[in-house]
Amino acid sequence: MSLRSVSLFFCALALSVSAHAHEYTLGALHIGHPYARATVPGQPSGGAFLSIENTGKEGDKLIGVSSPAAKNAEIHTMSMDGNVMKMREVGEIELPPTATVDMKPGNGYHIMLIGLTQPLKAGDKFPLTLTFQKAGKIDVSVQVTDMSGKAAEPAHQH
């Protein structure tokens, strides 16, 4: 492989990564890569995931979520009790100073989208409003990925 080919490969890789990364800042809060996994037709609910980093010196709390993609959005936690998955709504998520909360599939916190207005399709996006006790509200765009967590490639336009 030539040096030019290697350079072109890494440039394409960097563009691909930056095209899929989306981050938001609200005061001292950094919200990283909001995404949801695609659902199948008729599936009544889905989950959204993201990270929240509090870079400030004061704590805050995520106290609410909402989206037009679902009749109701709730902050949930998930845990395993032996072979049984237990999910429950939590009213808020504490965000201590200099801490990060990672919402990931199968791991702790997530945003439950209940009563989806339509199936979530890979490549689509939908709005999500996050409400924090101190920092206020921010609207983010949630990217829908396939079940592996990969974003669908955008359609090529001419």
From TrEMBL:
Residues 1-21 form the signal peptide. It holds the Pfam family PCuAC. Keywords: Signal. This is Copper metallochaperone.
